Every structure is written in structure tokens, then in C-alpha cells.
Amino acid sequence: MHLKRFQDAQPYNAVNHFGCHGLRLQGFEDNGPKNQWIGFSQFLPGGGAGPDSTPFEKVYIVLEGEMTVIVDGVETVLRKYDSCTIPPIEVRKIENRSNDVCKMLVVIPYPSTT
Asked: What is the structure's pLDDT at 111?
């Protein structure tokens, strides 16, 4: 078992994110997960990311607050315990349009080494 306490999580800056504080809960460390890493993102009101895409899929899980996910002009609001998968190459934009902080888990596979 690889244990990491929340207090030991390190911050990271996610590209094309704004009004966001990210913490790496698991990943990129000895004895950590081998297939993916887990981020904990806290988006201030008005915060968000994109529009952009990645060559790998991502999973978003909202823990508190709400996040609007926009794909192909379609807006979907994720609320507490809602989740979604963003497929590879799909362009998405996310926006916290509420007056509360949105806390979200993000599950992302490691970048390809080839």
C-alpha cells in the first residue's frame, strides 16, 4: 500500500487553468500508482479551464460545488458526486459559474513515454 496524507500533497500548475489550485494526491512518485495520477482541483468562483483537449481521457468527479462542462456547445452542470469522462482529443471548457468553490477529483493516465 502506498499512503499519502492530504497534508503532504504537493501543488501543481495545470496548463490553461485559471482561478484553480491543484494538489497531486497520488502519482509521479516511487511506489505510487503505475497507470494514472489523481489531482484535487479547487476552482474559485469564475475559475475554470480551456478550451482545450488532451491526447488521453480524463475523469472529473465533483466533490463539492458545481462545474459547468462545455463540449461542442452543449453545457452540462456537474454537482456533488456527479462525474464525467472526457475522451481523448475532445475539446472541453469548464467553468465554475457559482459563488462557491468547486472541489473536484481528476483522474488522468500518465503521459505516453513513446
From this structure: 82
pLDDT of res. 114: 59
Other C-beta atoms closer than 10 Å to the C-beta of 25 total 18
Q: Is the peptide bond before 33 cis (omega within 30 degrees of 0)?
A: no
User: Where on the phi/psi map is residue 70: left (φ > 0), alpha (ψ -120 to 50), or beta?
Assistant: beta
Report, as ranges of residue numbers, the positions in the chain whose pLDDT lies below 50: none
Given its phi and psi angles, is residue 19 left (phi above 0), alpha (psi -120 to 50 degrees) or beta?
A: left
Q: Which residues of 42-60 are buried (b: 16+ CB within 10 A; e: fewer)?
A: bbeeebbbbeeebeeebeb
List the domains of the chain with CATH numbers.
6-109 (2.60.120.10)
